[in-house]
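<purpose> Linking amino acid order to shape
<body> The protein record starts here
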Amino acid sequence: MRELVARCLMAGVPGTSLPAGLLDFCGGLILFTRNVASAHQVRELTAAARAARPDVLIAIDAEGGPGGHLRALRSAADSPEGLPGRMGNRALGRADDVALTRRAGAEIGAELAGLGINVDFAPCADLDSRADNPIIGARSFGADPALVARHVVAFASGLESQGVAACAKHFPGHGDTSADSHLELPVASLTPQDLVPFRAAADTGVPMMMSAHVSYPAVDAAPATLSRTVLTRLLREDVGFGGVLVTDALEMRAISDLHGFAEAAVLALAAGADLVLIAVGDADVAAVNDAVVAAVESRRLPLSRLEEAAARVTALAHRYP
C-alpha cells in the first residue's frame, strides 16, 4: 500500500543532493532554483534519484523566457555549461509561428533530457484574459483561445520529441483571476473559451495536465484541485483527458490556508488527481504517505481510485524513462 501511495506523490528536494530515504515515500521529485548549482551537480542528483528508484519522475518548471530555475546554468556564452536564453510565451504567441514554438519546446526538452529531467511543467495553457492578473501575464501565449491552443500543442510536441513529458497548466484556466494562488484563493469565472487550449492538448495526446488552485463558483466553490466536479466530471468526462493529472503545489496558500499537506493530498486524490505535488524541501513526505494510507484503510479514499492514479503515473514513468 505504501508503495502504491508513493507512486502518487511528488516532493521537493531541500538542497543540491538527494536526501537518503526520500524516494521510499514518493515516486517523483521536483527541482527548483535551490537545487541547481551546475550541470554536473544536477546530473549527479538525477542519477542518484534513478539509482534509488529507476522509474522516478523528475520535474521542473521550464516555460522559457528570462530567468527560470536553470538560470544558474545560463552563464556566459563561452562557458561549457552555459545555456542560451529563451523566448517567452508572449513573444512566441506574438510571432505566431508554430514551427518556432515547437523548436523552442524541443530546445528546452533537449536541455532537460541532458540533465536527467523527464517532466516539464509547461506549457501554460491559460489565456491572457486580464491585465491585472498577477500570476499569468507573459507566461501565456496570448488572449485568443485558438492561438493559445496551437502554440500549446506545438510546444508540447517539441518537448515530446526529446523524450520529455509536457504538462498543460493550469486546468481549467487561471487567466481570469486578479489574485495570486501562491498567496490566496482566487475566484474566477469559467467560459468555454478557457477550455479550448486544454481540449486541444487532450485531443493531441499531451500526457499531463496540472490543476489550478482557483475557485469557480458557477461550477464548484472548492478550489479546482480539490473539486471532483472539476477534475473528474469536467476534465475526464467532458474534456476527455486520459493522461496524468498533477496538482499544483499544495503548499500554496490557496490550499494550505484551508488544509494541511496530508489532508489536501487525500482530498485531491479523491477528487481525481493522480499525482500530488508538495514542492517545499522540508515537507514530511512520510507523514503524507501515512495519511493517504490511513484514508484508504478508513475508506475515505477508495482503493480503486488510488490504484487508478498509480497506474496512470506508472505508465507515464515507463513512457518517459
